[in-house]
Amino acid sequence: MRILVVEDEKRVAEYLHKGLTENGYAVDLAHNGPDGLHLALEGSYDLVLLDVMLPGIDGFAVLRALRAVRATPVLMLTARDAVDDRVHGLQQGADDYLVKPFAFSELLARVQALLRRGTQQHAELDANRLRLADLELDLVRRRATRAGQRLNLTAKEFLLLTMLLRHRGEVLSRTVIAEQVWDMNFDSDTNVVDVAVRRLRSKLDDPFETKLLHTVRGMGYVLEDRIP
């Protein structure tokens, strides 16, 4: 597995290079936006670790340019922990988002999950679309369809479905969903997440034989195509 690390802080870049190499990955480094974009477009990588604040062009611009031609999984790294920044990164096409400072063990777990997802899930990602089974999201037109039928989703439902689809195969807790979609700390006495999931499920799953949105009791929700 080859990983590209685009990080302008030399100490952080070397730390990531050392840790990932020790775990069996081949790692290339870039320390600015233009070099990172060039390597991402010209090389063959299984994953890109991309810092947001980069000299030359920032990480969001690198991500947009990469997504125009490549579906390489991208894990964004940033010192900015505002929910809007995280949501913006996911909407631009990032597959995951990690806020600095972070434990290497957490980064490694996220790297492994992203690489696993690429080989195990029946989902496809191109420049502007996310797919799972017969579900397709057009991120540019903000349109969702299933088996060719348009799903009439609200803005929040579309954002919720986008988040679930980007994390397909992963169980997302109510706390994580509430933070990412509603920018709120989850209150166990509030059922906003359950209500939203129930409404989304009524449009996404109820009219169709195959169910994609599943409840994992005591843990949260997961979007996946469970093959019988």
UniProtKB/TrEMBL annotation:
Any idea where the Response regulatory domain is? 2-115
What the entry lists under InterPro entries is as follows:
CheY-like_superfamily, CusR-like, OmpR/PhoB-type_DNA-bd, Sig_transdc_resp-reg_C-effctor, Sig_transdc_resp-reg_receiver, WalR-like, WH-like_DNA-bd_sf
Domain OmpR/PhoB-type, by residue range, is 127-225
Q: Does the keyword Transcription apply?
A: yes
DNA-binding region, as residue ranges, is located at: 127-225
User: Does Transcription appear among the keywords?
Assistant: yes
Residue positions where 4-aspartylphosphate is found in the record: 51
Q: Which UniProt keywords apply?
A: DNA-binding, Phosphoprotein, Transcription, Transcription regulation, Two-component regulatory system
Pfam families per UniProt? Response_reg (PF00072), Trans_reg_C (PF00486)
Matching entries from PANTHER family are given as:
REGULATOR OF RPOS, TWO-COMPONENT RESPONSE REGULATOR
- Do you know which NCBIfam families this protein is assigned to? cztR_silR_copR (TIGR01387)
- Protein name (record): Heavy metal response regulator transcription factor
Question: What organism is this sequence from?
Answer: Azohydromonas lata
Q: What is the lineage of its organism?
A: Bacteria, Pseudomonadati, Pseudomonadota, Betaproteobacteria, Burkholderiales
